[in-house]
């Protein structure tokens, strides 16, 4: 255990150095920073390479390990309920912050355009539900359609519970071996984290520039402020309420996962790291982590929900539109509902923003002003998404251990 602690402490220290050096490199050597993007991209690709087989195998093994439909139902309902709760709290914090600060009311927004907005199909609840069902599982696996993969893995696991013991043992041995092999590969990729983080951060700074952040500093500060508040106050309070353990000690133990999420801006790419640190550093049972974390990488979007709420209200202020209490409640319900449909990929929330703006009758063109800082904020909100996953996983694990 001491060796593992030293290993992760060393990795975290190097990652922090990578972030700092990446910022400086992006500022002072932007041309070189832009040219070395391939290094960071390769790092993210290595992580994403592991996601599909890891998610499928982990969920299947976790369901087989639960042993019964009743156990699956109990854990599943708790997991979904907690994810909805934390997302709702994130949206509430974001709307409250915007009602207090009222940013965006005196910002010039003339001449803005956003070409992609007109090409998006209108939102349909029916289409969203159908999108969860894989018409061809091999296509879903090849395209990395995470929700479809999770749905099939759950159904496959449930069906396997009805097999004779000999058949279940064969499947369990096979997919357990696949899961372990993926986690071993993840260990190798994690060793590249400091270099990958340096490359990704330096490229973002070189491409976006510090001036862009300064130009929208009030908006950026409110988004980051809400994310920090939810991550350091609300989520720890939820963990403390349900488990009575020290939330900050736990978050310190598993801090490598949020740091990785910040650098990659992808919950899916961070999943192998999250699974490893929760088991080794967070003392979470493997069965719990294998079920809750892959589900959270797709349906838990606290950071995204908070960001969307602030962004939509900011755009409303830019357009001179005052949203009533009823409109804000509708916004909250819509964001919480749609957060399930946000893909665990960088900047997918922009698509959701278009849907919400259209529903509230707000001008989509105003998105052009905030897209410039989206990548920076994407890193922050993804880190919060993963932090929420870690909190919910710990709560569910404590519930299971009590039984």
Automatic annotation (TrEMBL):
It is a multi-pass membrane protein. One of its GO terms (molecular function) is symporter activity. Its main location: membrane. The keyword Cell membrane applies. It comes from the Bacteria. Keywords: Cell membrane, Membrane, Transmembrane, Transmembrane helix, Transport. This is Dicarboxylate/amino acid:cation symporter. It comes from Sulfurimonas sediminis.
């Amino acid at each position: 255990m001491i060796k593992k602690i030293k290993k992760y402490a060393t990795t975290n220290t190097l990652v922090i150095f990578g972030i700092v050096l990446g910022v400086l490199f992006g500022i002072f050597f932007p041309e070189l920073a832009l040219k070395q993007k391939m290094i960071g991209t390769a790092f993210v690709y290595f992580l994403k390479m592991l996601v599909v087989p890891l998610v499928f195998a982990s969920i299947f093994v976790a369901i087989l390990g639960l042993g019964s439909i009743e156990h699956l139902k109990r854990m599943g309902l708790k997991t979904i309920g907690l994810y909805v709760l934390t997302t709702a709290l994130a949206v509430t914090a974001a709307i409250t912050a915007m009602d207090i600060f009222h940013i965006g009311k005196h910002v010039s927004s003339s001449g803005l355009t956003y070409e992609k907005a007109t090409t998006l199909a209108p939102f349909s609840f029916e289409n969203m539900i159908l999108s969860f069902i894989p018409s061809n599982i091999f296509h879903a696996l090849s395209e990395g359609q995470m929700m479809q993969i999770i749905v099939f893995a759950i159904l496959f696991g449930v069906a396997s519970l009805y097999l004779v013991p000999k058949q279940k043992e064969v499947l369990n041995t096979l997919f357990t071996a696949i899961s372990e092999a993926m986690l071993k590969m993840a260990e190798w990729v994690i060793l590249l984290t400091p270099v990958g983080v340096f490359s990704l951060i330096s490229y973002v700074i070189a491409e976006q520039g510090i001036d862009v952040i300064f130009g929208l500093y009030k908006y950026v500060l409110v988004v980051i402020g809400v994310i920090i508040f939810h991550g350091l106050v609300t989520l720890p309070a939820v963990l403390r309420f349900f488990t009575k353990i020290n939330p900050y000690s736990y978050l310190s133990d598993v801090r490598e996962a949020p740091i990785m999420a910040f650098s990659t801006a992808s919950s899916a790419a961070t999943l192998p790291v999250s699974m490893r640190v929760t088991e080794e550093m967070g003392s979470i049972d493997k069965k719990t982590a294998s079920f809750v974390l892959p589900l959270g990488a797709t349906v838990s979007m606290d950071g995204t929900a908070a960001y969307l709420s602030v962004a939509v209200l900011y755009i409303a202020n830019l357009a001179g539109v005052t949203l009533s209490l009823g409109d804000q409640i509708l916004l909250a319900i819509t964001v919480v509902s749609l957060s399930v449909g946000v893909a665990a990929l960088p900047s997918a929330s922009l698509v959701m923003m278009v849907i919400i703006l259209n529903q509230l009758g707000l001008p989509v063109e105003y998105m052009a002003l905030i897209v410039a800082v989206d990548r920076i904020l994407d890193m922050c909100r993804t880190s919060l998404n993963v932090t929420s996953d870690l909190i919910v996983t710990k709560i569910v694990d404590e519930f299971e251990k009590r039984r």
